[in-house]
Amino acid sequence: MTADLAYLIFGVALLIAVVLPAALERVALSAPAVLLAVGCLIGLLPVWDAESLSPIVHADVTEHLAEATVLVSLMGVGLALDRPLSLRRLGDWRRWSATWRLLAITMPLCIAAVTLLGWWWMGLALPAALLLGAALAPTDPVLASDVQVEGPGQPSESTGTIDETDEVRFALTSEAGLNDALAFPFVSAAILLAGQAVASEWIGAWVGFYLVGKILIGAVLGVAVGWVLGRIAFRSSKESMRVADRRQPLMAVVVLLLAYGVAEVAQGYGFVAVFVAALTLRSVERGHEYHRQMHATIERLEQLLTLIVLLLLGISLANGLLADLTPGGVAVGVALVFVVRPLTGWIALTVGRRRPTSGDRALRGRERLAVAFFGIRGIGSIFYVAYAAGEAGFAELPELWSTVGFTITLSVIVHGITATPIMRRVGAQR
């Protein structure tokens, strides 16, 4: 394909992406679904071959493009959340209870279920099955925008506080902000299992370093970066350093890059660091208008990167990405979207929960069902498979890519069609 044709194709696609949000406001169809379809149509043009945009052939490009998209999305999610989370206030932790339940119960159960189904239905070796489970378990922060909070709120004129009352959107947004990073230890376990057959040789290091140590390093450094840069941006004694007064929105990109870079250099999880840094930056001056400007900048960057990834995914789908899809892979994808995630999500949000009282904003029955159902799979799954492929050899890699591609496509279509009507109905009932 010539460079001129590439400019033309992506220019037309960008035009479509610009006009889509307004055009789809009252239609039960999401922008990601349309972009994926446009990518498939572009992929049918006689200018591609099976290897030109294959994620297996171009694993490095796939990994870093997906990684950048997820990082930008995590920064946006952290800035968008109005609800505070202070280490010193027990009430804050309780108001995040739905998040902790989804992370501690739903995600491990999803990983275990998909791993079992991949081993049983698809006949995958255990390392590949575990990689599939870890890659498909997290709710995606990129493609779940239709069911997430819209952005930073402003203080109420009557109370002077910010009140985030949509429990469904908050639960899905906060879950997506954290579970991508928390799936990383299980991707690492799959890599270690693929390289060392004897679990006793690596299980101790995995628990101590990959499961606990790297998460703590990422979280601590994220708090540090967010606090330091927040103090500089909002409260520096030097006027030239208070970028919030000048409304310089690129500070959000600075926080993202520094948090990720410092955490990765220190052997922590950069995904955790970026999300925590965004939460910390937001907490310095929670109601400041500057947060909305930073979030708007991040949102535009996220839209551009998402456009590119979805177009490339659609092109790949039309050029052989699903060539190695088996009936077992189809069954795993369908089971995850329609059974595993909804069931495990409902269990996490229902079992052992306290009964809501009058005025309590805890999730009610249909709201719990909505949160359980909208476990959208997306770009994070692409990153994990591409990352693992560069770290260890997986003989079933083509089948893994086909299954992941099918599951993402199914999730984009099903959740894209149902998001608008379900969220409107849940909102009206509340």
TrEMBL record:
Statement: the UniProt record of this protein carries the keyword Transmembrane helix: yes
Keywords from the named record: Antiport, Ion transport, Membrane, Transmembrane, Transmembrane helix, Transport
Residues covered by the Cation/H+ exchanger transmembrane domain: 15-424
Ranges that cross the membrane: 6-24, 31-48, 64-81, 102-122, 181-199, 211-230, 250-281, 301-322, 328-349, 369-389, 401-423
Main localization, broad class: membrane
Keyword Ion transport: yes
Localization: Cell membrane
Pfam families noted in UniProt: Na_H_Exchanger
Membrane topology reported for the UniProt record: Multi-pass membrane protein
Name by which UniProt lists this protein: Cation:proton antiporter
